[in-house]
Amino acid sequence: MKPVRTRFAPSPTGFLHVGGIRTALFAWLVARQQGGQFILRFEDTDKKREVAGAREHLVQSLRELGLTYDEGPDIGGPYAPYVQSERLDSYQKYARQLVEAGRAYADPYTPEEVQGFREAAQRAKQPFLYRNSRPENPPEWDGSQPLRFKSEPKAYAWHDAVMGDLSTGPEVIDDFILIKSDGYPTYNFAHIVDDAEMQISHVMRGQEFLASTPNYLNLYEALGLERPVLATMPHIMAENGNKKLSKRDGAKDVLDYIRDGYLPEALVNFIASLGWNDGTEQELFTTQELIEKFSLDHVQRSGARFDEKRLEWMNGAYIRQLALDTLYDKVRGFWPASAEAYDDDYKLRVLGLAQERLKFFSELPMLTEFFFTDLPINSELISGNKQLKKLDTAEIRSLLEQAQVSLTESDFSVPDITERLNLLLEATGQKPGILFSLIRIATTQAPASPALADTLAVLGKDRSLARLNAQLAALS
Ligand code: GLU
Questions:
Q1: Is residue 245 part of a domain?
Q2: Residue 13 within a domain
Q3: Do residues 7 and 27 touch, judged by C-beta distance below 8 A?
Q4: With a 6 A CB cut-off, is 9 part of the ligand 1 pocket?
Q5: Final residue of a structural domain among 371, 400, 434
Q6: Pair (323, 449) in one structural domain
Q7: Any idea which residues carry the catalytic annotation?
Q8: Are residues 437 and 327 in the same domain?
Q9: Which of 12, 101, 260, 331 could join 54 via S-S bond, C-beta 3.0 to 4.6 A?
Q10: Per residue of the chain (476 residues), what is the pLDDT tens digit?
Q11: For 143, left (φ over 0), alpha (ψ -120 to 50), or beta?
């Protein structure tokens, strides 16, 4: 069997949404599982679409996710260069070979003439095919005209490692452009030459290339090349509706997620789940497990739904698995500015509580600010609370005063605070949803917080009582 060599072949056109890198992940998993190689190649033959900085961006995205490649533009390899615009000689060589074999011709037509053919086909209610207007005596190809493939229309039946057995009729085969008049090859031509030269064993890519595949099969034959394994990835669909995921659906760039404090392992796990599962209910996979368990025949054929809430859940699950010290190192850049004045010990205690609810690191200020600074009294937290707004001010004051009396005598250990809060429930006859919410609001001025006794213990006695006082003053 051929050694396994897979590739990720992005065009450096900028934005890479978190689903866009799925092809890279799947190709990487196949290579790592089979002890093969994973190759990065830049497909930059469409100079108009190129975006400055996109190459660095792609490299960094792969690096952040840990998708190491064995050969690539910046590290070289036996088939260098790995940038299409630096491989023009190679395309010329294959193009000449096709011309000499009578399988490519210079396209002599102006765009207006082609438009004329198109309209004629429309009038005749025929599908438009270039091959129906092939010139009888094409001029010699001097590089100034586009070079077209002279296809051989025929039916194909082939196997796609994801989509299964596929077949098409001869009507989809056409004379496509190999080399444009600017001297650059088309994607359709260049990737076939490169995959062959680079000994790629598995071509894994998005569904948008499926319709052209019969034409690629035709070209493999004309060039006498062995077909690689073809594997077509299902579309990634927006969360709502039946359309492909795009930037407009809020799909962020991979690096944006990293910047927001998502863990690379969680992102990899989530991306793998976009169209793949191992056939069981398991949802969390370490990267090592993914390498062991991934298989193309478990990639689904229908579109995979992008659900950001699921990514948040997954990332939260990974955060909760981390040792507190490890998490502490990772969140270093994410604390609110007000935390700067506090020592590691205090911040570790705060983080220990936040770890339970943190979904991504940039939520840390929102979740922990009140541990470091007295937030202004927000009267809407009481007036807008479903349960609390039923009480009048006197009742609220009375509850807070009783809490104050009881907590003044506490040693502020978690067990003691817990006991006092429970006694207070009995004494006041209130539900926790009322009493505890009220104390929580008074002592944090935040819409949510960790468990009340834990929160008070970390805040400490002086601060907790001072805040109860401030709330009482605001109510009078
Ligand atoms: N350059 C193509 C793209 O970015 C790659 C397709 C392929 O993997 O062959 O869509």
A1: no
A2: no
A3: yes
A4: yes
A5: 371
A6: no
A7: 247
A8: no
A9: 12
A10: 789 999 999 999 987 877 779 999 999 999 999 999 999 999 999 888 999 999 999 999 999 999 999 999 999 999 999 999 999 999 999 999 999 999 999 999 998 999 999 999 999 999 999 999 999 999 999 999 999 999 999 999 999 999 999 999 999 999 999 999 999 999 999 999 999 999 999 999 999 999 999 999 999 999 999 999 999 999 999 888 788 887 777 678 999 999 999 999 999 999 999 999 999 999 999 999 999 999 999 999 999 999 999 999 999 999 999 999 999 999 999 999 999 999 999 999 999 999 999 999 999 999 999 999 999 999 999 999 999 999 999 999 999 999 999 999 999 999 999 999 999 999 999 999 999 999 999 999 998 899 999 999 999 999 999 999 999 999 98
A11: left
Q: Ligand 1, residues 7, 8, 11, 51: which to mutate, most atoms within 8 A of Cβ?
A: 11
Could you tell me if 153 and 287 lie in one domain?
A: no
Domain boundary among 233, 267, 287: 233
The structure's pTM equals 0.92
In which residue are the tokens 């533009």 written? 73
Measured in degrees and rounded to the nearest 5, phi and psi for residue 335 equal -65, 155
Distance 202 CA to ligand 1 centre (A): 13
Q: What is the CATH number of the domain that holds 128?
A: 3.40.50.620
Phi, psi of 17 (to 5 degrees): -70, 165
- In a shared domain, residues 96 and 183: yes
- The answer to whether the CB of 191 is under 6 A from ligand 1 is yes
Verify whether ligand 1 is closer than 6 Å to residue 44 (CB atom).
Answer: no
Domain that holds residue 450: 380-475
Q: How many CB atoms lie within 10 A of CB 269?
A: 23
Task: Residue count of the chain, please give it.
Answer: 476
Mutate to test the pocket of ligand 1, among 39, 43, 69 (most ligand atoms within 8 A of CB): 43
- In ligand 1, which atom is closest to the CA atom of 43? 1
CB 414 within 8 A of CB 352: no
- Please work out whether the CB of residue 54 comes within 6 Å of at least one atom of ligand 1: no
User: Is the distance from the beta carbon of residue 20 to the nearest atom of ligand 1 less than 6 Å?
Assistant: no
* First vs last C-alpha separation in the chain: 83
CA of 188 to the centre of ligand 1 (A): 10
Question: 7 near 73, Cβ under 8 Å?
Answer: no
Q: What three-state secondary structure class fits 75?
A: coil
| Residue 55 resides in a domain | no
